[in-house]
Design goal:
alpha+beta, elongated, single chain, 9 strands, Nucleoside Triphosphate Pyrophosphohydrolase, 346 residues, 5-stranded mixed beta sheet, Endonuclease III, domain 1, two-stranded antiparallel ribbon, 2 domains
Length: 346
């Protein structure tokens, strides 16, 4: 058997039973592919089930408010995926009469749909012979063929796409594409690949050269930036608080948060109190205290957020305040959601 035949045989025997594998509906394939970008299947599966239950069709998703979409997405990270997905659903309904384009060229024009996602939908939903190349596929191809090109370089991206096209099985592209991604996720895993019982081990160049853990090659990541967040959790005597919505193009766009003071380093209470008085324009602050013993370090792809939650108690009633019990209804970053869960127990 050649490379693609071995992948197909392995997939037939080892594939996981996943809900998007039982359909060719482009809406559901699209949902799953967007959710699984930079997300493990185990983490993404509950979100997929929630979205399909809440929004059974692209029309339902298009009609939903962004706030509701972001709330359902809460905790999955990379929120631009959710915003793009919502925008694209509306485009599909408005410009395509609710029907997804049936070709790679048509699909890739949609917002938030790149080469990989367009290839996946085109091949799985419409059987178009278009190769998929995701992180799992890069790993399989780099190891099996012993390729040193960086997978995140322009040269590497082109080379791996061309190679993926060359070795794919065009007659069974739907199963082959799903098969090679599954093979990379399970058999040719990043840290503990099962080389001993791999159907490709007799001809894998990386295995023969003892280079399995060196491949694939990736260019160095962008330098991590440290940021210092101070959230001001204001509470009056009636347990009212208030939230603000994040604007701009930074992280967590359109999610809600407690008023934020960002500093250049960890702040002492005295300095925080001065800044909070300026920002909140509140009178009769009775107490300010730090909720967490040490900064919570929240790690994003290129940023580490050193975060403190300051409880700001005021004597006067907050005008148009939000009852604390309603805070959970707003879409917030998981960092804040975790705080809300623990603070409610006090």
């Amino acid at each position: 058997m050649d490379f693609s035949e071995k992948i197909l045989a392995w997939y037939a025997e080892n594939k996981r039973e996943l809900p998007w594998r039982n359909t060719q509906d482009p809406y559901k394939i699209w949902l799953s592919e967007i959710m699984l970008q930079q997300t493990r299947v185990a983490q993404g599966l509950p979100y997929y089930n929630k979205f399909v239950s809440e929004f059974p069709s692209v029309y339902d998703l298009a009609q939903a408010s962004e706030e509701k979409v972001l709330k359902l997405w809460q905790g999955l990270g990379y929120y631009s995926r959710a915003r793009n997905m919502h925008s694209t659903a509306r485009t599909i309904v408005k410009d395509y009469n609710g029907n997804f384009p049936k070709t790679y060229k048509g699909l890739i024009k949609l917002k938030g749909v790149g080469d990989y996602t367009a290839s996946a939908i085109a091949s799985i939903s419409y059987n178009e012979p278009e190769p998929v190349v995701d992180g799992n596929v890069y790993r399989v191809l780099a190891r099996y063929f012993g390729i040193d090109l960086a997978i995140n370089s322009s040269e590497g991206i082109k080379h791996f796409k061309d190679l993926a096209r060359e070795v794919m099985n065009v007659d069974e592209v739907r199963d082959y594409n799903q098969g090679i991604m599954e093979f990379g996720a399970i058999q040719c895993a990043p840290k503990k690949p099962y080389c001993l019982h791999c159907p490709l081990n007799d001809s894998c160049i990386a295995l023969k050269a003892n280079r399995v853990h060196e491949l694939p090659v990736k260019l160095k990541k962008t330098k991590i930036k440290n940021r210092y967040f101070n959230y001001l959790v204001v509470l009056d005597s009636n347990n009212n608080t208030f939230l603000e919505q994040r604007k701009g193009k930074g992280i967590w766009q359109n999610l809600y948060q407690f008023p934020l003071v960002e500093s250049e380093a960890i702040l002492a209470k005295k300095k925080l109190k001065e800044l909070s008085l300026e920002q909140l324009t509140l009178e009769n602050i009775s107490d300010i205290y730090l909720y967490n013993d040490k900064p919570i370090v929240h790690k994003l792809s290129h940023q580490h957020l050193y975060t403190n939650f300051w409880i700001v108690q005021v004597d006067d009633e907050i005008k148009d305040g939000l009852p604390w019990k309603e805070v959970i209804n707003f879409p917030v970053p998981v960092l804040i959601a975790d705080f809300i869960k623990t603070f409610k127990k006090d």
